[in-house]
Amino acid sequence: MKTLLITAFIAISGLSFGQIQRVERPKTERIGEVRPFGKFCIESTRDGNRYTFTYRDRKLRHIGDYKHFSFEDVDGAFDRLYEMIMDGFSKKHKKGEQSTMLEIPVGYLWLNFRTNLGITRFSFGHGLGKNGYVLGFSPWLTKKQVIKLFGKEK
């Protein structure tokens, strides 16, 4: 009886661990990052064909409040996003903030531009709905910082 019980326990134990398998993930490559004064601000990474932007939420509800959004690089989406942002820097903006809304696979992305004292800055906002509910806002970035973030610096 004891032998049967021990055999059954070993068989059941082997089955339960047999369902767990290690999954190898592709190596994540850092494209660019912005760290003013050595403090993390925002970074872009690539994992295969998927690009992810991770940033410190400028609303900063909690000290370690980091947000992210991702998208697949279908038809050069990463480079098109970069071009849209660079075009936004070259446009003349009225006083106040100007936004462009884009649809990404998991929600919406806002490209926000603000010009103060002749200097234009850029910020991402991302959310789940068109109604303007935003999950997070990236810090304001200069043109030079955006170039660094997208890994386009020479």
Q: For the largest beta sheet, what order do the strands appear in spatially?
A: 1-2-3-4
Structural class: alpha+beta
Model regions low in confidence, pLDDT < 50 over at least 5 residues = none
- Please compute the radius of gyration using only Cα atoms: 22 Å
User: For the terminal residues, how far apart are their CA atoms?
Assistant: 75 Å
| Biggest sheet details | 4 strands, antiparallel
Output the number of helix runs.
Answer: 3
Shape: elongated
Portion in helices: 10-25%
What's the overall average pLDDT, rounded? 82
Order of helices and strands: HEEEEHEEEEH
According to DSSP, the number of beta strands is 8
The percent range for strand residues is: 35-45%
